[in-house]
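Journal club side-thread
Mid-discussion, someone asked how the predicted structure for our own chain would compare to the paper's figures. Pasting it here so we can look after the session.
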Amino acid sequence: MRSLEQREQRKKHKRRKKKRFRRFVLTVFILFLGIAAYAFYQYQQGLAEADGQFGNDGQFAFHGKSADLDTMNVLLLGIDSRGEDHSRADTIMVAHYDKKNNQPKLVSIMRDSYVDIPGYGKNKINAAYAIGGPELLRKTIKENFDVDVNYYAIVDFKGFSKVADTIAPNGIEVDVPHEMSHGIGMTLKPGKQVLDGEKLLGYVRFRHDSQSDFGRVNRQQEVIGKLMNEALQIQTIAKAPKIWGVIDPYVDTNIPPKTFVSIGKDFLIGNQNSLDSLRIPVDGGFANERVPGAGAVLRLDLEQNQEEIKAFLE
């Protein structure tokens, strides 16, 4: 009798365990559906706030080597085409991702750098994009700096202010060194202040002072670092689908979706260090010159700049 009762008890216990397991699976499934619905809703909200469509969704010809998920280089290009089909790249950067060291790095290449463009002779590096798109620019970077670029992301500046406002709705604090107005459609007064997206765009694009493009590149690196730090805050992470919805219409990239997911996961749980940055040409690694047909250029000491990039990315 006792053995029969024990068997019955074991059967009841197993049935209870199965019921608990089914409830658990159902709860997880409902939770998953809820998260997916929330993400889709947030993404659609972001799309609604964007007011344009840009790029070809990764359809540019680009033959960078496929990267593993541990380290890669992404060519970041900022353009302001104003409807042109073949605009020059206004901003040229290489973002370096290294999972092992948890250290995001950014190399800014000044657009007036005078380099060899494969098949087209010497010119400013930003002409490579106008001539042959991101692929020719990839080849140019490889030939002149010996850096392999795996993927590209082209950002239309029309979307910068919306993206900045979504990531940092309360603005970003900067220290404006002097009055800025020429060429940016606004006037920024000197001093520490919090700027919204539209004014941040003016801040990072201003170049009509004694520092010219050098100051502009420094400000771009500063703002990107601060936006990245803001994006990794808990309250901002919850808005990630909406942020991507805002960004999507203004970005053309060939980075695989699974790579985005992997990098995003690493940034969330990997205790990333602050952004480390380098400007090319480095101090002492160039000369200001005027070249017929190209205008004012930066003639580089290629060997010195190659060594600096190699050491920086190691």
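Post-session note: Residues 238 and 293 are 50 Å apart (CA to CA).
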